[in-house]
Amino acid sequence: MDLCHPDPVELSSGEAEELQRIRWHRKQLLEDIQKLKDEIADVFAQIDCFESAEESRMAQKEKELCIGRKKFNMDPTKGIQYLIEHKLLSPDVQDIARFLYKGEGLNKTAIGTYLGERDPVNLQVLQAFVDCHEFANLNLVQALSSQEGASDVGIDR
């Protein structure tokens, strides 16, 4: 007698009923497994879609940041305004100063122009920009050489 595929004639009525229940449960389990596989495939598809959307958002943000830098290099005030309007930079003077201090993709002359404006906000940004520079524990020569970056942007201390 084959235990995996018993001949129904060799089974008692109780065994035949038990075999039917086992087959029914097996069928249900296989259906549940298939549903789980389908759900997993859906989740992976959603993850892929989310990652694509996130990559697209990051690319768009990088593009807007590049535009903002170009605008800044042509007209510093309009560039900062663009970056703030597109939520790439907060209007906080500390954040603006850090952005200028990093200077990634920014023209040093344009930074100097912005910091040299006599508008109260620009003056606050200038002060915060100066505060970004670390002079503690430097001797005079080191401190003066660290001013090269400041003089490159047209700031005289």
From TrEMBL:
What the entry lists under InterPro entries is as follows: Sec7_dom, Sec7_dom_sf
Provide an example Pfam family for this protein: Sec7
Which positions are tagged coiled coil? Answer: 19-53
Specify the SEC7 domain's residue ranges: 54-144
* Biological process according to GO: regulation of ARF protein signal transduction
GO molecular function ontology, one term from the record: guanyl-nucleotide exchange factor activity
Keywords from the UniProt entry: Coiled coil
- Its recorded name reads Cytohesin 4
Gene this chain is encoded by: CYTH4
